[in-house]
Amino acid sequence: MTKAVNLLINKKLESKPEKKNLFNKISIIKLIAELGSVSVNDIVKNLYLSLPTVNSLIAELLEDDFIRQFDKGESIGGRKPNLYKLCDGLFQVLSIELQRFSITLSIMDNNQNIIAETIELDNELSRNGENLAAITQIVDQYLIDKSVDTENLTGIIIGMPGLINAEEGTNETFLHDDNQSITNYFERIYKKPVFILNDVKGAAYAELKFGLAKNTKNSLIILMDWGIGLGIVSNGEVYLGRDGYSGEVGHMPFIDNGELCYCGKRGCLETVASGIALVNNAKQEIQKGELTKLNELQPDELQHLTPTHIIEAANKGDQFAINQISKLGTNLGKAFASLIQLLNPELIVLGGKIAKANELITIPIQQAINSYTMAILKEHCDIKVSSLNLDSNTVGLTNYFITKYLSVELLHKSKI
């Protein structure tokens, strides 16, 4: 099906009416990708096209198997309108999700169908761009193991932490190379369009489109994993900032003369309120002889302790693990109080592996917010744990790729 899309987008056109027809078809496909499903009236309203034109375009897209009718919408008087969505497999996107100590690979289509099974492997994220070659080796093996026909791939989306300029395709924090952007490197290797996005902004897109932040205007999405990231929804859109660097809450100064952070500054929030801080503090206390179920781990597991180990112990009633998570939550809550007073959100969505601690982390967060936030601001801000599953980041990244890809194609077609 992806081959058909490529033929549509790359079709050579002679006349202006043909070019306009193609532009409108891509616009409809993009609108459906953004909204999930549309009626004819939705298309007329959003794209400012006439009803006869839309009906003609819909008929052509149905005939070519780009879209399908799947349901009837709600009626506001008269017959229920037909609803259209994209056909399965129209776009197939390889997601490369890089975290501080792991890499997750998957291929998902435009309707959230998994095309190739998701895998997660250990991989320490490097600052050096020379390590891009090691990542492509992992990707190549994945494509071989899953028998992926790369001809069907629409492109690649890379999600990762750091100071990412999505337009330039660069990351100033990790895998940085002065001679080439990350996107250019992957495009050269795989001959596919490649986009890159900060991991928490991918989570914010997922929450805004499919999760608890849907239909909100001003919300915060906090991703709590090895690091701490912030996605800002402002006026119903994910806010990026001038260069795409918004939301670096983990590197706000939090403690005077604190521990040295990997960013080079001392006392950042991440040094006391992140997965790394949680693990480091737990290891230090265990080495001092603290009694905990974590001592039952094998030496290799204890050496490679993760936030998940601590959360699992806490959920089994281990008081040491509960106390460690509580301290983390208190520091996070104090930081969130500043964000609430600065941004006045209606909702904060907590995501990431540490959010799986549920009440063990949300209660100390809420207590700290109660202590450090003005009453009227906290009363109008709900705090909830994400309802999306672990594939939510992939969903957000895939949807971002498709809409971005179609936006680029529309820009190109508008200049033909």
Automatic annotation (TrEMBL):
<dbReference type="InterPro" id="IPR043129">
    <property type="entry name" value="ATPase_NBD"/>
</dbReference>
<dbReference type="InterPro" id="IPR036388">
    <property type="entry name" value="WH-like_DNA-bd_sf"/>
</dbReference>
<dbReference type="InterPro" id="IPR049874">
    <property type="entry name" value="ROK_cs"/>
</dbReference>
<comment type="similarity">
    <text>Belongs to the ROK (NagC/XylR) family.</text>
</comment>
<dbReference type="Pfam" id="PF00480">
    <property type="entry name" value="ROK"/>
</dbReference>
<dbReference type="InterPro" id="IPR036390">
    <property type="entry name" value="WH_DNA-bd_sf"/>
</dbReference>
<protein>
    <recommendedName>
        <fullName>NBD/HSP70 family sugar kinase</fullName>
    </recommendedName>
</protein>
<dbReference type="InterPro" id="IPR000600">
    <property type="entry name" value="ROK"/>
</dbReference>
